[in-house]
Design goal:
Radius of gyration: 19 Å
Strand content: 15-25%
CATH topology of one domain: Peroxisomal Thiolase, Chain A, domain 1
Distance between the termini: 21 Å
Order of helices and strands: EHEHEHEHHHHEEEHEHHEHHHEE
Oligomer: single chain
Number of strands: 11
Mean pLDDT: 92
Largest sheet: 9 strands, mixed
Low-confidence stretches: none
Strand order of the largest sheet: 3-2-4-7-1-8-11-10-9
Structural class: alpha/beta
């Protein structure tokens, strides 16, 4: 029997460059304890666990999920490991939603983590995600691919470097409101524009950090959720799609799959005017241009209208549609958990538990995720019951 599903508990660690005081299992356990405490539950009330972690090279161990089974309380319970790169956290949450919505389980714990600080150079690991034969002559890595996207948008729509810088300034300033944030930077447009060029027009302050950290949520069926908390965050819409692997086969400035996945989630949630109906959005933007392109794909503005959208202050924490009040991915990026953090932050907004970063009277919020070679996309809509 299909059930409505809600998030009833959220737990996060602080996100930092390196957590030398804990092991991988202890890091996961920290987030789990906080999520269970938030839901006022003990592990014996949890029916199953979904575990998310991205590329194992970051931790430098084989299958970190194996380490974590007993640490997260999954002994003698069903346990599922998920990995879709940067979108891992969102994929894990969707898997947890399916397990509850199907009626198979009533309460499911979802936990995701990454110990990026265990790797000497995260970029060297990410450089290996592109096809080594078909695309080797282009010397692609994440930053150069994103730079191509930025240049294409500038060419098509007249976006300027200053537009991307505006996103960086807002995200880093918002992070001061978030006790878990990794980077909290009081910066100006000029600071971003003068920061070190990595691959033009992408500069150092257009990018996310590499972070250690974990995030967990507790999902519950309608029957259980209303007994656990008076302020559940209901999953009202969700969708996920995948593009092909080869970057050369896609127009990076026109990611139609992101638009399609948004439409599916909106239809499920009954949204036909997202800019007017949504109260908050947490967007997966590891780079400023990655956030910019979502404004269009999610229907917040028309094609090419992202610059004006920013200039009008709509995305500010006091604006019409606040984006990333947590500071977003630019303030913390524990890769395998990052997309789950977006969902957790929207859940906190809906539940009224976002503390200094709380947007008043949030009824409906959106979280996105992306991963792989910019090929996996997800959208989740959370809101109050009615």
């Amino acid at each position: 029997m299909k059930s409505d599903v809600a998030i009833v508990g959220v737990g996060q660690t602080n996100y930092v460059t390196k957590r030398l005081d804990v092991s991988v299992p202890e890091l996961a356990q920290e987030a789990v304890r906080r999520a269970l405490q938030d839901a006022a539950l003990t592990m014996d009330k949890v029916d199953a666990v979904v575990f998310g972690s991205g590329p194992e090279a970051f931790e430098g161990v084989n299958c970190p999920d194996k380490w974590c089974v007993d640490a997260v309380g999954a002994l003698e319970k069903p346990f599922f490991r998920i990995n879709t790169g940067g979108m891992t956290g969102a994929s894990a949450a969707m898997a947890g939603h399916t397990l509850v919505a199907s009626g198979l389980f009533d309460v499911v714990l979802v936990v995701a983590l990454q110990r990026v600080g265990e790797s000497s150079d995260a970029q060297q690991i990410l450089n290996t995600i592109f096809d080594p034969i078909y695309e080797k002559d282009f010397g692609l890595n994440i930053i150069s691919t994103i730079a191509q996207r930025a240049i294409r948008l500038m060419e098509l729509y007249g976006y300027k470097e200053e537009h991307f810088s505006m996103i960086s300034v807002r995200n880093h300033l918002n992070a001061f409101r978030n006790p878990h944030a990794h980077l909290k930077l009081d910066i100006t447009l000029d600071d971003v524009l003068k920061s070190r060029v990595l691959c033009w027009p992408i500069k150092l302050l257009d990018c996310c950090p590499r972070s250690d950290g974990a995030c967990a949520i507790v999902l519950a069926s309608e029957e259980k959720a209303t007994k656990i908390t008076s302020t559940p965050a209901w999953i009202k819409g969700l969708a996920s799609m995948s593009e092909g692997y080869f970057v050369g086969d896609r127009d990076l400035a026109l990611p139609d799959y992101y638009s399609l996945v948004a439409r599916k989630a909106y239809e499920m949630a009954g949204i036909d005017n997202p800019r007017a109906q949504l109260d908050v959005a947490e967007l997966y933007g590891a780079f400023t241009v990655s956030e910019m392109i979502q404004y269009e794909c999610l229907g917040f503005c028309e094609r090419g209208g992202g610059g004006k959208f920013l200039e009008e202050g709509i995305t500010e924490i006091t604006g019409e549609l606040p984006v990333n009040p947590s500071g977003g991915v630019q303030s913390a990026n524990p890769i395998g958990a990052t997309a789950l953090v977006r969902i957790a932050e929207v859940a906190l907004q809906v539940m009224g538990k976002a503390e200094e970063r709380q947007i008043p009277d949030v009824k409906l919020g959106l979280a996105t995720g992306s991963g792989g070679t910019a090929q996996f996309f997800s959208v989740m809509i959370l809101g109050k019951k009615r």
